[in-house]
Amino acid sequence: MNKQTQVHKRQxxxxxxxxxxxxxxxxxxxxxKLRLNGFETFSEFIHAWIKGQYPLHENNEQVEKLIQxxxxxxxxxxxxxxxxxxxxxxxxxxxxxxxxxxRYAYPKHAKDLVRYFERYVDIFFSKPQxxxxxxxxxxxxxxxxxxxxxxxxxxxxxNPELKILIEEIIQRYELNKKMRIHDRVWLTDEGFIxxxxxxxxxxxxxxxxxxxxxxxxxxxxxxxxxxxxxxICDSLTxxxxxxxxxxxxxxxxxxxxxxxxxxxxxxxxxxxxxxxxMFRSLSMVTREERNIAHMMIKSxxxxxxxxxxxxxxxxxxxxxxxxxETGAExxxxxxxxxxxxxxxxxxxxxxxDQYSDCILEKFISP
Length: 366
Ligand SMILES: [Zn+2]
Prior knowledge:
single chain
């Protein structure tokens, strides 16, 4: 064997391939993280890491501040117990998912929160300003995922300081700017929804009945008036007339409106039967009464909610319940008429039970 082949052989054996097996979902997360950190490939990242060129953001001003803050606040790495600017990388996301899943009726919600956490936590703590350019919808999810992470951390580590730090980053970098709830259909903060609904339901009198009907039915303003003034059909079986058709199931009534005005559909809605009778016996439910209801909700919630928001709250609560998105979309009139018909014919018992379990368990109806 001559010298040249010897060298060649030694070089060959110096190089080893390292492979890693990942689930498809994790692969997407990995690719996203690589991209966010300026790497084209996994190999580029490994080489930079070995050479000590990564993490690159060690010198970044935000990271310097972060180290200071986590020391001051005693926020330790959950794995090593040390102060580490990338402590969040050692969070067990499986455990976080288990923890959050217990808190949501709708498991997909917890999964989505953890997915946002995984994708954005690095950037949130090291370069939060980059999040500013994301859409309002995405920022809402990111902020909520980080807040939920802070709460989870507090439950695990008995240190509420991280929650405060996260809130400070959100405020300081204005990550929740221009995210008024009035512009969004999907709301991430469940606690906020419940507080607002309870506040709105406190209002009594005739206007209070309109407000309660608006929340429990989830109808749009003009549909509320339509449900009030349209005559009720006497026929109990398969009728195609333009009047309202009512079916009673336990404590709730199914009101079939079949109203289509432009893109606004409303096939049917579910309301507590007692409330339905109170609502129908009101003398006037016109635009004017709706306006008063709108103003009363605004003043009662310090401007945080409006009459229109009750429809969103209704939708958001049902989405997270056993009913799920499909059922909630049907009730909101966002689904195709064919699926509304399917529910009306085949799943009326189920959807009215799901409605009662979600809405009537949480909120007292008159
Ligand atoms: Zn009829």
